[in-house]
Amino acid sequence: MVAIPSRHKSLVLLAAVVLAQVLALAVQIKATDSQGDKQSLIRGWTVGAVSPFERAGAWGVDKIRGTWRHYFALSATARENDKLRQENNDLKLKLNELQTKAEEAGRLAALLHFREAHQDVKMIPARVIGTSADTSSEVIYVDRGARDGLKRNMGVITPDGVVGKVIEVYGDTAQVLLLTDKDSGVGAMLADSRIQSPVGGMGEPLLNMKYVAGDDEVKVGENVVTSGMDRIFPKDLPVGTVVSVKPGMPFKQIRVSPAAKLERLEEVLILPTLEPLQMKVATETDTAQRAAESAAENTAAKKPAEKPIEKPIGERTKSKPAKEVPAKTQEKTPEKTNPTPPTDHPQ
Amino acid sequence: MNVNDAFDIRSAETHIEVYKFRGGSIVIATVVALILQALLPVYLPRTAMMDFPLLITVYFGLSRRNPSTGLLLGTVIGLLQDSLSKAPLGLYGIAKTVIGYLASSIGARLDTEHPAARFALTAMFFVVQQFIVVLTERLLLAKPGTWFNMHLAIAAGVNGVVGMFLFILLDRLRKS
Hints:
The complex is a heterodimer. By secondary structure, chain A is α+β, with helices and mostly antiparallel strands. Chain A has helices at about 5-30, 40-70, 75-115, 285-300, 315-320, 325-330; strands at about 30, 40, 125-130, 140, 155-160, 160-170, 175-180, 185-190, 195-200, 205-210, 225, 240-245, 255-260, 265-270. Chain A folds into two domains: about 45-115; about 125-345, Beta Barrel (Thrombin, subunit H), CATH 2.40.10. A six-stranded antiparallel barrel of chain A has the order 3-4-7-6-5-14. In chain A, helix 1 (about 5-30) crosses helix 2 (about 40-70). The longest helix of chain A is centred in the N-terminal third of the chain and has 43 residues, at about 75-115. Chain B has one domain (about 15-175): Orthogonal Bundle (Arp2/3 complex 21 kDa subunit ARPC3). In chain B, helix 2 (about 50-65) packs antiparallel against helix 3 (about 65-85), helix 2 runs parallel beside helix 4 (about 90-105) and helix 2 (about 50-65) packs across helix 6. The interface of A and B includes residues 14, 17, 18, 21 and 22 of A.
C-alpha cells in the first residue's frame, strides 16, 4: 500500500470528503437533457465518462474484427470461393449440356416432322460422327453403313435441303461428300425460270452454278432446286439460293448459298430412293438472311481459286445409276445427263 | 489522543498554542449556530446575510489548528446547514469542508488571536465560501450565481465584525 506523508494526509482527506460530497450532490441533482427530460447528473456523468471508452473500445474491436475477417480469416472464404467457382463451372457445363440437348431436340424434332411428312418415302436417318481429316476435302462420316442398307451415290439431305451424296460405305459407317467439296456437284435448276445447270462446290461455303448462258435472266435471291437429272436426288429438293450474279460470256458467274447448313450438320437423312419429296419451303426472310450470311462467309473465306466443277454428281453417277430410281423419275430424267455443256439445259 | 487535549505546534520561528474546549461545547455551539441561522431571518430579515455556521467552522478551525478535524467539522456543519435548507446536500458541505481545512491550516501557521486578524480572516473566508458555493452552483446546478457584488462585500464585512465579537464569546469555552 502506498504510504501517504503525514503532511499530505489532511489534503487527501479534504479531497476525499469534497469528492464524496460532489458525488452526493450529483446523485441528487436532476439535470435536463437536450430532449427536456430530467435525469440524474451522476448518471449523466457516468455515461459521459464511460461512453468515450466504450466508443473507443467498440471502434477498436470493430477494427480488429474487420481486419481479422478481411485479411486473416480468409481460409473459409477461400474455401467457399473455390466451392462456388467449382459449382459455377459445373453449372456452366450443365447449362451448355442442356443448351446442346435443347438444340439437338429441336433438330431431331424437325427431322422427325420431316420424316412423318414423308412416311411413304424411305429415308434412313443418320448421325454425323466425324468429319474430314484434311482441310482440302469436304466430307463427313455418318453412323450408318452397309448393314443399314446404305450404298454408294445415295443422296444425303436434311429438312433444309441437299447435303451431298454417299461416296464410301463401310460396315457401320459411311462417308458423305458434301456439296461444297470441289469434286461435288448436283443436277439443279432455277426454281422460277427452270433453267437447268449443275451446281457444284468450290471448296468454300458458296456453291457455283456455272453453265447458265450469259443472256439468261437470273435474279439474286432466286431459289435453286434439284433437277432430278443426276438420278441421285429427286426433283425440286432445295439446293440453295442465288446470292450473286455476274455477267459473263458465254456463261454467267452465279454463286449459290447452300440451303442446308453444311457447316453445322449433326443429323442427316439418307435417301435410298428418288421418290419426289415436298421439302420445307424457305420464306423470303430466311432466304435473304441465309444469302447475307453466305455472302459474309464467302468474303471472309477469300479463297482465290474459283475452279469449275470438275465432275458433277450426275456425270459421276452416269456409269453407275442407282437401282432405286423409280421408273417414272427415269422417264422424266434424260437418258444421258451431261450438265457440262450448256445444251444440257432443258427448255 | 483526545480531541479536547491541548498541545503545541512548534516551528523554528513561532510558538502557536492549540486549544482544547469543554466537553460538548463544539456540538452545542454548532447546534446553536444552526438554530440562529434558521430562526433569526424569520424575525430579522436583514440577518439573512449572516452565516453563523461559517463563523463556528472558522473559529474552531483556527483554534483547533488541525486540518483533518477542521475539514471534518466543516463537512458536518455544512451538511447540517444544507439539510436545513432547500439546497441539495453538499452545496454548503463542500464549501465549509474547504473553509474548515483552510482555517485549520492557516491557524496552524499564524497567530489568529488578534481581533483584526479574526475580522480579516472571517471576511475572507466568507468570500471564499461564496466563491465555492457559486462555483458549485454553476458547475453542478447550472445556476448562474453572482461571483461578487456589493451586497456580498457588505455581508463579508458584517460577518467579519460579528465573528470578531462572537469569537471573544467562544473563547470562554476554552479550557484554561
